[in-house]
Amino acid sequence: MATTVAYADGAISHRDGKDYTGVGIFFGKDDPRNFAGKLASGPQTLQRAELAAIIKALELAQPQTDRQVQVRTESEYAISAIDDMRRGVQPPSNSSLVKYIVQCAGDNAHIMLASKDEAGNKVADNLARQAAALAE
User: Fold this and answer.
1) What's the longest Cα–Cα distance across the chain?
2) pLDDT attached to residue 108
């Protein structure tokens, strides 16, 4: 079975006493699904940005029965919260986002820890930082 790999990252920028967050998704060089955007709603926290990046990656990858999706993130917080939710333990914060990730992932998508040194992770990080820097 073929596998789609997406790197997902969130970033936060502190300016003028406010927090601005962005998400970055990287599938591969020149892939039209690559994405950089701001966190549209809710509290502007790094944890929410990391979770929103995973959600966006899942939506762009569109898990299907004939194709596995692997979303790689460096967020240990996100991995832990997702694992907790799958075991029936509600995370203390952002539970609605985590629940949505688990629902979207189903059986054909896996959220995995990425190394900060992975090339795809570095690109996703740059995309997220750019989006956070431009967010208003």
Assistant:
1) 49
2) 84
**Beta strand spans in 2-130 (E):** 2-15, 18-26, 35-38, 67-73, 109-113
Cα 85 to the center of its chain, rounded Å: 16
- Check if the beta carbon of residue 128 is closer than 8 Å to that of residue 81: no
Computed over every residue of the chain, the mean pLDDT equals 91
In terms of pTM, does the model score above 0.85? yes
Domains located in the chain, CATH noted: 2-134 (3.30.420.10)
The pLDDT of residue 1: 65
Concatenating the DSSP letter of every residue in 47-84 gives HHHHHHHHHHHHHHH--BTTEEEEEEE--HHHHHHHHH
